[in-house]
Amino acid sequence: MEYVKKAILLSGGIDSICLTYGIKPDIAYTVDYGQTVSKREIYVSKYICNKLNIKHKTIKVDCKNLGSGTLANSKTSNISPSEEWWPFRNQLLVTLAAMQSIKDSVNEIYLASVKSDNFHKDGTIGFYKSINNLVSYQEGNIKIICPTLDFYSHQLVIKYKVPIELITLAHSCHISNLACGKCSGCKKQLRVRHELNIE
Fold this sequence. Notes:
The chain is an alpha/beta fold. The chain has helices at 14-23, 38-52, 89-103, 125-137, 153-159, 164-167, 184-195, and strands at residues 6-9, 27-32, 55-60, 108-110, 143-145. Strands 3-2-1-4-5 form a five-stranded parallel sheet, with helices on both faces.
C-alpha cells in the first residue's frame, strides 16, 4: 500500500494545534501572507512542531495590501461578515499550501475549521468540498481535508486529548503579537479556556 504523505496548515491557534496533535502530519505549513500577527503565529507553530517532531515550513507571500479588518490593520470591508475578514483567505492559504505540497510530494492537506467558523463562507462544508474538488482535479491530485467541521474548539481539545500546556501556547489574537484580550480571536481563546476550566 502506497504511503500517504500528510501536510497541515498550522496557524498556531487552538484549532490547528489540536488537529496537528491529533493526526501528527509529516509536515506543517504556516503561511505569512501579511497578517499583523504573523511573527507570533510562526513562533508558536515552530514550537509545536519541535515538540511533536514534525517538519515545519513557513510560506511567505505579502498580500497585506489586499487584506481587510483587524488581521490587516486596516478598515473592515462593508461586505465583511466579521471584523477580521480577509477576502478569500482560506482559498489563498490552500492554494499556497498546495503549491508547496507539489514540491514536497504531499498527498493530503489538512485544515482545522470548526462549527463556530461557519459564518464565513470559507469555514463551511460547502467551501471545503468545492476547494477539494478544485485542487484534486489539478495536477498532483492533492486532497483537501477538514475533519473538524462538526466540532467546537473545546471539543477538539477533548477529542484529540491535547495537553493543556499546548493549548495555553495558542495565539489567536488578530491585532498583536502579544494577546490584546479584546479582539474576537482573544475572546474565543478565553471562551475555550473557560469551557475547559483552564485558569
